[in-house]
Amino acid sequence: MSSxxxxxxxxxxxxxxxxxxxxxxxxxxxxxxxxxxxxxxxxSHLAITPPVSVVIPAMNEAENLPYVFKTLPDWIHEVVxxxxxxxxxxxxxxxxxxxxxxxxxxAGKGKGDALISGFAACTGDIIVMVDADGSADGNEIVxxxxxxxxxxxxxxxxxxxxGGGTDDMTFIRKLGNWALCSVVNAKFGARYTDLCxxxxxxxxxxxxxxxxxxxGFEIETLMNIRVVKAGLRVQEVPSHEYNRIHGVSNLSxxxxxxxxxxxxxxxxxxxxxxxxxxxxxxxxxxxxxxTS
Length: 292
Description:
Number of helices: 10
Largest sheet: 7 strands, mixed
Oligomer: single chain
Strand content: 5-15%
């Protein structure tokens, strides 16, 4: 797969709407065995070829979605909203804000289960994970995509890398994140500056190299560990985490911290071959695209 950054075609207006841009096809010379590719303009000087899918797990986030969707760049290929059986009008608001949004009804429970369902529905070559609480800035997606098309397999957001930051981190959570990150770095040879952060992006083919088989918040840590164990190229991307705009987070520092620690300890004793032989139901669902 060819993944390169190239100048946008002369005369391409970056201010065009999504509908207008989709009507403007910029052909390139097809390579052997391929038909035709088209650039997606990011600016008047930059364009990309790989389609980008954004996965947003949401449960009762109707008030926050306008802030989330407002920052999403209009050059992305698709938005996949995974609805965790919301009792408000989350789905209706999403469809109003982004008419072409793909809505996936979550069958199970938990953030991990929601992300797995969303990944299975993606049709783009690149997948970006974005929270629905307004804490992530969609304008940063270009930095993640740039890291991937420049050679990384997995672009990992970091609030503590140079240029990153957070408005939503208590001392206890910061200490816990540092401790867990240190354990992962020591046990798996990683060089992470942040571990428990959900703003990440990766090439879809990475899902063939890792098995996702947990349902809770710890899925982010699981992915961070397994991409390293799989030998994939990881690049941290500085990111700023903002406060949740409306509502109350379901995150529990102690409960979820313990779940993350259990994942770390369990992964140390699991080889890649053994993990694939004993892949759980959720991993099989992703590989087969059987989520609903």
